[in-house]
Amino acid sequence: MNYMTQDQFAAASKANLETLFGLTNKAFEGIEKMVELNLQVAKASLNESAENTKAVLAVKDAQELMALQASLLQPSAEKAAAYSRHLYDIAAATTAEVTKTAEGQFAELQKGLASVVDGALKTAPAGSENAVSLVKSAISAANNAIESVQKASKQAAEMVEANFNAVTNTAVKASQAATKSAKRAA
Questions:
Q1: Would you tell me the crossing angle of helices 129-185 and 62-122 to the nearest 10 degrees?
Q2: Is-contact 101 19, C-beta < 8 A?
Q3: Contact residues for 175 (Cβ-Cβ < 8 A; gap 6+)
Q4: Mind listing the pLDDT tens digit for each residue in 100-155?
Q5: Residue 125 carries which DSSP code?
Q6: Of the spans 2-6, 11-15, 18-22, 149-153, which averages the highest pLDDT?
């Protein structure tokens, strides 16, 4: 029977550690991007708040206040939608990189397992062909199930993205309609 040698075990351990550190770095890169985005949004919001406060203080009557309010509503909704989209893009990109790495590692694990199983099956005693066939069939079924789960996960992610886009577009359109209505009322 084939067993993993000490050198093979050390190499596999090293590869696993490198993968772990690589995934950790990817996660931190995503977090850094989110923090940077949030700092940019906070800075822009502070500047906009100051400008909006000055504009509100300069208002002379209720009609002017309504017009100002209407002019501020749509850009805020669009900025919120853009922020959400950017945040989603960062999360999706980070998830895609982690998934790609995980799928690569899983493929390597499958190859290693197949090699070990093939080695073990080659040394199987005569008359155990049915058992060998059963083991191969079980491995094939497991691989097919894993591929199905991966495909379903990708489809679910695509559906989430499509729904996110639809909700964002609907919110922006609703904001635009509300702004137009407020401008007409003013």
A1: 170
A2: yes
A3: 73, 74, 76, 77, 78
A4: 887 887 777 777 777 777 777 777 777 777 877 787 788 788 878 878 887 887 78
A5: P
A6: 18-22
Instruction: Please tell me what DSSP assigns to residue 186.
Output: -
Q: Which two tokens mark 178?
A: 């509300």
Rounded to whole angstroms, the Cα distance separating 148 from 153 reads: 9
- How high is the pLDDT of residue 85? 87
Cα R_g (the chain), whole angstroms: 28
How is residue 124 annotated by DSSP? P
Q: Would you state the pLDDT for residue 186?
A: 57
Note the pTM of the prediction, 2 decimals. Answer: 0.62
Residue 39: the pLDDT is: 95
Q: Are 139 and 114 in contact (CB under 8 A)?
A: yes
Both structure tokens of 29: 């890169």
d(CA 166, CA 157): 14
Residues 6+ apart with CB under 8 A from 16: 105
Q: How far apart are the first and last CA of the chain?
A: 84
Instruction: State the CB neighbour count (10 A cutoff) for residue 179.
Output: 20
Taking 50 as the threshold, does the pLDDT of residue 1 lie above it? no
- How many Cα atoms are found within 13 Å in the side-chain-facing hemisphere of 79? 13
Closest to 93 measured CA to CA, from 29, 16, 177, 12: 29
Residue 90: which of 166, 165, 26 has the closest Cα? Answer: 26
Tokens of 33: 């991007």
